[in-house]
Amino acid sequence: MPAMTPRAVEQRPVFLRVDIGCRGCARSVQLSGPLLRTPCASCGLDAEIGAAVWLALFREIDERSFPSETPRDQTFESSQPTAAGTLGARWRAAALTCAKCQREMTPVEPGTNEAIECSACGTRRDTFPAPAWLRTELPTAMQLYGAARDGAERAGTETGFWITFQGTPPSLSDQHRQAIQSAIGPAPISYAAPLSVPNAAPRRRWEWLAIALFAVLIGAAVYRCGGRMGTPSHPDDGSEVEPSP
Ligand SMILES: [Zn+2]
Ligand SMILES: [Zn+2]
Question: How far is the CA of 160 from the centre of ligand 1 (A)?
Fold first, then answer.
């Protein structure tokens, strides 16, 4: 599988539309980004989506879009149950495009927090890094394009947005690691760490501490004895050659 290496390095844009049923009027509320709260356009009631729900959704999309065989531009569906109803996503592995002329746009370096410009028509598209609460749990989630920023209502009619993933999905790396371990045994680091170090290291440290303590006690005892013996010996006999410690 020579395609796996570049696949793990390249940025993988996924275009998605996400919605959830409104608790108030039961109509569909469009989520134009990984927002934790969005007002329903019909009745104004806030739809709240927990970070864990978003995380489960993005984990699934990351894993399913990762294989290089995943057909581009084929629409997939993923859903996550929530207390308030089902969070549904329709998504496809699709190139980033200009909202006006549909020309393909090149993804920016992850971490960029400013609009990018279409090279053909100059139309700007906002981009910013995936929120910290998502990135800390799913480090492959990189950058959002055309998404609403948290706390800001987005103007316009576009409801879909892109997220880019980069790197091997964490669950797949874990599977690879387990497969390698069952085939050739555990990695040297995890082999050395639990078997030999934890018992030996503290004991050795205690031994050194005990030795140091003994040395100090012996030193103090010798000093005191030497002092006691030395003090009376000095006036008697000035030729004493005992080294004073
Ligand atoms: Zn509503
Ligand atoms: Zn354009």
Answer: 19
Residue 165 forms beta bridges with which residues?
A: 12, 141
> pTM to 2 decimals?
0.71
Ligand nearest to the CA of 23: 1
Ligand 2 center to 106 CA (angstroms): 12
Please return the burial class of 239, using the count of CB atoms within 10 Å of its CB with bins 0-12, 13-18 and 19+: exposed
What is the band of 85 on the pLDDT scale with cuts at 50, 70, 90? Answer: confident
Asked if residues 93 and 12 have their Cβ atoms less than 8 Å apart, the reply is yes
Q: How far is the CA of 97 from the centre of ligand 2 (A)?
A: 8
pLDDT tens column, 163-211 = 999 999 998 888 888 888 888 887 766 554 454 444 545 556 777 888 8
Q: Got the DSSP string for 82-122?
A: ETTEEEEEEEEE---B-TTT--B-PPPPTT--S-EE-TTT-
